[in-house]
Amino acid sequence: MKLLIVKLQVHSGSSRLNAVLTETIDSIRADHSDADISLINDAQCFITCAEKGDLRNTRLLFAAELDEGGMNMDACRIIAYLYANSEKLPLKGSVCGILIDGSGQLFTKDTGRRIAFAANTAGCMLPGKPLVEATGDLFNFTTLSELWHTDTMSAYKKSVLLLMDKLLSFDKRLHLKSGIDGKPSILVIHAGNSKTSNSLCLWHMAAENISEKADIQEISIRNGQLVDCRGCKYEDCLHFGENAGCFYGGVIVEKVYPAIIDADILVLVCPNYNDSVSANIMAFINRLTAVFRAYDFSQKRIYAVIVSGYSGGDIVAQQIIGAINMNKNLILPPAFAIIETANKPGDIMKKENIKEKAAKFAAHMMNLDP
Ligand SMILES: Cc1cc2nc3c(=O)[nH]c(=O)nc-3n(C[C@H](O)[C@H](O)[C@H](O)COP(=O)(O)O)c2cc1C
Fold first, then answer.
1. Last residue within a domain, chosen from 169, 195, 216
2. CA angle 271-275-280, nearest 5°?
3. Same domain assignment for residues 111 and 10
4. What's the gap between Cα 33 and its chain centre?
5. What CA–CA distance (Å, rounded) separates 314 from 276?
6. pLDDT confidence of residue 236
7. The predicted structure's pLDDT at residue 201
8. Which residue among 16, 32, 81, 347 has the highest number of C-beta atoms inside a 10 angstrom radius?
9. What is the domain-level CATH number for residue 78?
10. Residue 148 DSSP SS3
11. Cα four-point dihedral sign 336, 338, 343, 348
């Protein structure tokens, strides 16, 4: 298996990122005799490889250092290239992970999500938990270092090693969990009014194309039904989760938990509320914590239907990537979101080619081996 490491340094020479990569690449080569690992050292080289089609059907690790302001100009150039050329799908068939080495305690997650969204838009799939981030003082590795009985630097290196290993062994195909008659089972979560919601209307436009090909279950979590996560102690949360429960009962425990345990694909219907998913959807994500601790979500895929009144669909998409793919371990399939702008009720129907776009999104969801 081939692994391309896109090493984007801001400090030349012997940086921490360089040292970590040198050591982990040596270990991976020792463990995987068939691993063919090569380095791409800057944005220009990345673009040249992409133009030749060399970044398709491969495994990629974006490894970027950040300066004090959270910037990396090569990473910015790559992100710009991926959006500008997204129609050509320069990363089609590829799987990527991301390593961000920061200077301070800020910006690592933000840059990680931005790279993830750009790569995904360009056709790349991301396994669950695809990001290793190292803050300046490595404080973010404290819990892992305690768990692994080691120091924070060793925990950092081990996390990079595990990510490379995951990229090399990841199986892109969707193995159906409980789909009936070979149909994927799709769980749709929304909090919209079916008469007025643009985002729910867009989902229904997509769904009508696949109602025969998938086993679709829609659950509404509208106002008043859903209480946000209480933040129980880890042990208590785990205990509830192992019994497919949570401190609070209600729709989440009675309907959503059993449905998500059985689902192959999760679809979140997300209107943009104050440049965020709505409070109901966020409460749903937070309340997933208990069941996530006890069940493996790493073979499920996440898709999203996002509608903003004016702007900000990218922010909502990146919020979902952070919460559901990076934290909750679901796979991010290529081009995971349909993102539209429509404000007043019914405006979504007036968008040009909207039915075709919805149909394309739906067809794309049915591709079990993208
Ligand atoms: C509470 C609230 C906050 C909103 N905040 C934003 C916003 O920050 N940016 C934006 O572009 N649209 C915003 N909108 C508009 C919605 O995104 C827009 O109406 C869109 O069509 C999706 O909503 P729907 O699926 O509920 O119809 C907001 C709407 C509401 C009700």
1. 169
2. 50
3. yes
4. 29
5. 10
6. 87
7. 98
8. 81
9. 3.40.50.360
10. coil
11. negative
Quote the CA–CA distance of 47 and 151 in Å, as a whole number.
37
DSSP state of 184: P
Instruction: Please name the residue whose Cα sits nearest to atom 22 of ligand 1.
Output: 271
Which residue segment(s) compose the domain that 71 sits in? Answer: 2-169
| Global pTM exceeds 0.90 | yes
Q: What is the pLDDT of residue 228?
A: 82
Q: How far is CA 275 from the centre of its chain?
A: 18
Query: What per-residue confidence (pLDDT) applies to 339?
Result: 98
Ligand 1, pocket residues at CB < 6 Å: 192, 197-199, 271-275, 307-312, 342-343
Single-letter amino acid, residue 80? A
Length in residues, the chain: 370
CA distance 237 to 109: 25
Answer yes or no: do 200 and 165 share one domain. no
Q: Which of 273, 315, 351 to mutate to test the pocket of ligand 1 (most atoms within 8 A of CB)?
A: 273
Q: Are residues 47 and 100 in the same domain?
A: yes
- Together in a domain, 159 and 206: no
Residue whose entry in the numeric block shows the structure tokens 């129609």: 87
Q: Give the Å distance between the CA of 200 and the centre of ligand 1.
A: 13
Give me ligand 1 centre to Cα 309, in Å.
5
- Can you list the residues of the chain whose pLDDT is less than 50? none
Element of type H or E holding 356: helix 354-365
CA distance 153 to 116: 24
Which protein residue has the closest C-alpha to ligand 1 atom 31? 273
Residue with CA nearest ligand 1 atom 1: 273
Does residue 174 form part of some domain? no
If you take atom 28 of ligand 1, which residue's CA is the nearest one? Answer: 273
For atom 27 of ligand 1, the residue with the nearest CA is 197
CA atoms within 13 A on the CB side of 320: 33
DSSP string, 52-73: TTTTSSSEEEEEEE--TTS--H
